[in-house]
Design a protein that fits this description.
By secondary structure, this protein is of the alpha/beta class. The protein contains six helices and nine strands. A nine-stranded mixed beta sheet has the order 7-1-2-6-3-5-4-8-9, sandwiched between helices. The longest helix is centred in the N-terminal third of the chain and has 12 residues.
């Protein structure tokens, strides 16, 4: 990882600006949840409808309880088995999740990635990253840095190129708001 680019990306995140970075699945575009007032810059950069909530990447298992409220035991078991990795869990949002980041139903989607770059960025800025795939809305999510649309990169405060290729397979999404898990993707 290029240290100068990493520091520039972390600085942009602390300023509330979006950054492109690799995850274990695809390249993502994200903002630091403690430093950006909301996900508006992500919607604007992607041309994404504001009705589609933005998931959070988190840095630890403890974040499931911190940002989730009334997290069912089966969700903790799923996280224990699937994190870090390509598993997103939708839970009821706790009061630690600002309103701007919650879905209309009061939920938040959380995932702990298996990407050293993403985890290092979260550590550097001290909070989760509200992250969506680094593609224009309706286009294919990029699993190589070279595939990221230049217009999207231009809307960002920084970009990190990973040391390899992301898997290209989006994470599984499981709704954990009811009595039993429901796979959404």
């Amino acid at each position: 990882m290029d240290e100068a680019r990493f520091q520039a990306a972390a600085a942009a995140l602390r300023e509330g600006r979006p950054v492109v970075f690799p995850t274990d699945t695809v390249y993502g575009i994200g903002v630091a949840t403690a430093h950006a007032a909301g996900p508006g810059a992500l919607y604007a950069a992607k041309g994404r409808p504001a009705s589609k909530p933005i998931p959070w990447l988190v840095g630890s298992m403890a974040d499931l309880e911190r940002y989730g409220q009334g997290v069912p035991g089966y969700a903790r078991e799923l996280a224990s088995e699937g994190w870090p990795g390509p598993l997103t869990l939708v839970v009821r949002a706790s009061s630690a999740v600002p309103e701007a980041y919650r879905s209309a139903e009061g939920t938040i989607a959380l995932r702990m990635p298996g990407s050293s770059e993403a985890l290092a960025l979260m550590d550097a800025v001290g909070c989760p990253l509200a992250t969506t795939s680094a593609n224009l809305s309706g286009c294919e999510p990029p699993h190589r840095f070279a595939d990221i649309d230049p217009a999207l990169l231009a809307a960002c405060g920084g970009a990190l190129e990973g040391s390899g290729t992301c898997s290209g397979t989006p994470s599984a999404i499981v709704d954990c708001t009811g009595p039993a898990p429901i796979r959404l993707r």
